Amino acid sequence: MAGSSPAPVDNAPAAAAAVAAVPEAAAAPAAAPATSEVDDNILPGRHWIAQAENDADSFVDSVGDETTASLRSSIRNYREINGRTYHGEVGQAEYWGPNDDRAQEGLDIHHHACFLMLGQELHLAPLQEGIQKVLDIGTGTGIWAIDFADEFPGAEVIGTDVSPIQPSWIPPNLKFEIDDCTREWTYAENSIDYVHTRWLIGSIADWTALFKEAFKCLKPGGYLESHEPSSGFENQGEPLDQKSALAQWGKFFVKGGLKFGRPFTVFEEHIQRKAMEAAGFVDIEEREIINPVGNWPADPKTKEIAQFSEATFLEDPKGYIAFFAHALDWTTEEIEMYLLQFRRELKSSNHRAFYRHRVVWGKKPLV
């Protein structure tokens, strides 16, 4: 599936969504690159050390440096890579992002950026007010599930993740479970009204298998909703220099995803829609949103989205790339020099960075 060519998709709703999200950027960005056009040629780590040595400008970082079961002590035996902790069940559930305190702060900032990006909505699927059971896959810090449980107090909400990093003070209608979504789900068939997933990119080898599990557990008429980003940054106006740190950012993930068999080109390949169709969902709809990053938008609401998005990346850029940089045998110094340039470019007035975000939702047939 990861190597297939993208199918044609009607992008009229996507264009309308882009206009709503980023008024001044809607007309400028070109269409998202096709899979074959995604370049994974990444510069070696030593390039960034050499660039730092040749650059006289200083830069100060403004942010600073097995099945559903009860908690097992082994789950807390996190791996440590480049000074950061990651989920420890190697060979089973695999997630590329860290799960330490700094990463959790970044996840919560990102949640707020997504909330603003959707017009202060937690979902786009047309849910009924009387929904009874909701499942949030890859819940992370659990912040989406907490907000959803507050908004729908009559629904039972379950958030699942491979790492036990969720808070204990939660709404009474919410519970968290440690579970690997890439295995067979243990929930009863036809028992769930709504399944929500967000940013599972790089964690799933077989998206069709994942969505088939959701299909099996959903009630007839229930919805699956998937949120996934593009693999890298683009720039409004002039294309990014492919040797820039911003352009190189996405290459870490494309190359890393290929190496570990978990694609980061979910957006570019339209994998969400394809997998939903293959799993049997109907009435599939999607919205593509242009998500600005930085201080460049003029519209106040758009600027707020862009500022929170920038804060997401500046809070923990090392957490994003460290796993793959380590896999590519980069040294700590090489990682730090790359991140120095990345922060500089992201905050520079010379760039008007954005990435794309696609929300896809589909319904399980009534019969």
From TrEMBL:
It holds the Pfam family Methyltransf_23. It comes from Verticillium nonalfalfae. InterPro entries: SAM-dependent_MTases_sf (IPR029063). GO terms for molecular function: methyltransferase activity. This is Methyltransferase type 11 domain-containing protein. Coiled coil: none annotated. Belongs to the methyltransferase superfamily. LaeA methyltransferase family.
